[in-house]
Amino acid sequence: MRYYQLLFTLFFTLTIGTAPAQQPEGITYPYPVQMLSFQLESQPVKMAYMDVKPARSNGKVVVLLHGKNFNGFYWKGVIQYLTGRGYRVIVPDQLGWGKSSHPNIHYSFHRLAANTKHLLNTLKITKATVIGHSMGGMLATRFSLLYPETVERLVLENPIGLEDYKTFIPYQPLETLYKKERSATYESYKQYQQTYYPVWKPEYEDLVKAQAADLQSPDFKNIAWANAVTYQMIYEQPVYYEFENITAPTLLIIGQEDRTVVGKNVLPKNEQAKYGQYPVLGQETAKRIRNAKLVELDGVGHIPHIQTPDRFVKALGEFLK
Q1: Vertex 68, ends 126 and 66: CA angle to 5°?
Q2: Strand pairing class (88-92; 61-65)
Q3: Is 104 in contact with 110 (CB distance < 8 Å)?
Q4: Domain, as residue range, for 117
Q5: Residue 1 CB-density burial (10 A; 0-12 exposed, 13-18 middle, 19+ buried)
Q6: Which residues, at least 6 apart from 36, have a Cβ–Cβ distance to it below 8 Å?
Q7: Which residue, 16, 35, 59, 208, has fewest beta-carbon neighbours within 10 Å?
Q8: Residue 61 near residue 88, CB atoms below 8 Å
Q9: Nearest alpha carbon to residue 121 among 32, 10, 5
Q10: How far apart are CA 39 and CA 11, in angstroms?
């Protein structure tokens, strides 16, 4: 681990900002947001995070890692559940998302994992349960592989990356991805998020608003670029081949109606149904991870903690006992 400690020394210069982060119009994060400022690739960046402490601590920490079309905003109910049971909960917005900076850097799961580890080091946290949803599941997997001594338990909630997308999704140049991100609208965000659920409900609209707040940002060009290069990151940096190397006890929570495929829209219609088959992918992945427990949620799509929060926290609570 001396190698990674050296990387932290070389790449990070720490200052902590205590002022609350500015809230996007119409979007209020459920808890106060703090900023961790540091230097990355010779430029200053700020990483937003919530650090929510329980009224009565059990001495344990949980880290929540968001998906690609989300940020820390959507973890509200899970934070409430965990702090109510004594857990301290750390919820970062990864660089490139939410209230964090959107720098023009080389985005990689290794880099995002290192940023997250830097945050935990700053907060003097040495052990945690790590929960990752969607793209956050890929990041949580990479974090667990890089820092196994830090991960007490791992929870993967409908993670993407259970198959290697570059083996069947046609390649898209970065210019094409950027153009698509620049042309995004509230309605295009909503149409995509509607695919996450078997039945759309009005209460899901808040997650669209949280994502669409970026459209009004003066930094939208940089946000769109970060969205494009992180799509490329998912495509080019699979974790699919390394599940056997996870050592932490792992819970897979898989909504059985999920059919998410990154880049599905560029597949021919007759090919789309072959992929994103989460009932099969969940079982295959559980067999490959040592110490894995699989919970299958019938009738549930891509975001169990939003669609069926009671069933999600029931599975989570039993695993954390």
Answers
A1: 35
A2: parallel
A3: no
A4: 2-320
A5: exposed
A6: 14, 16, 17, 46, 47, 49, 118, 119, 122
A7: 59
A8: yes
A9: 5
A10: 7
Give residue for tokens 């390394």.
242
Asked if 106 contacts 42 with a C-beta cutoff of 8 angstroms, the reply is no
pTM of the entire predicted model: 0.91
pLDDT tens-digit map of 12-37: 333 333 333 333 444 799 999 999 99
pLDDT for 27 equals 78
Give me 312's structure tokens. 């999600």
Q: Chain-centre distance of CA 30, in angstroms?
A: 17
**Which residue type sits at 87?**
Y
The count of structural domains within the chain is 1
The DSSP bridge partners found for residue 296 are 254
Q: Which spans in the chain are helix H?
A: 2-11, 76-83, 109-122, 135-146, 174-182, 186-194, 205-212, 220-236, 269-272, 278-288, 304-307, 309-320
Confidence of residue 4 (pLDDT cuts 50, 70, 90): very low
pLDDT at 256: 98
Specify the CATH number for the domain of residue 254: 3.40.50.1820
Give every CB contact of residue 131 below 8 A, 6+ residues apart in sequence. Answer: 62, 63, 64, 65, 78, 140, 154, 155, 157, 316
For residue 212, the one-letter residue type is A
The number of C-alpha atoms within 13 Å of 241 and in the hemisphere containing its C-beta is: 7
Q: How far apart are CA 220 and CA 235, in angstroms?
A: 23
d(CA 152, CA 176): 40
